[in-house]
Design brief:
This protein has 140 residues and is of the alpha+beta class. It is built from 2 helices and 8 strands; from the N terminus they run ββαββαββββ.
Length: 140
Amino acid sequence: MMWTAFGKIRDERGAAAIELAFALPVLVLFIYGIFVIGQLMAANAGAQNALGQGARYATLCLNPTEDTGCTLPSDTDIQAKISAGLFGTGSGTWSTPTIDRHDTDHYLTIQVSYTQNLNFLFFPGPTVTLTRSKKVYTAT
């Protein structure tokens, strides 16, 4: 018990439990939100890694000969390389990488995208789509 400014005695037992009841749900939502955003950032890093591996593979000159020059990797091979380098996309949807060839200018554009629904326990969040692309110059 404690004396107040007005001289009355009041009991403060249980005040901490009530404060915890107000603060704990907000704290749990913040921590879960950080976890969900962390998953999204891991997926972003995985998409960037996969895109980089596919871009590096696309620049290779396979089986070079003096007669025919270079054999360039096929779109299917590049897509397989991208899919092999992917990580961190467990809770979302990974779309098939698209490859747009510009043979006259000797480059191609590789694009990947990842979609994830952000749900914060009791509150549905937005659907986020991460799209990354690279312009890759190929061997002639």
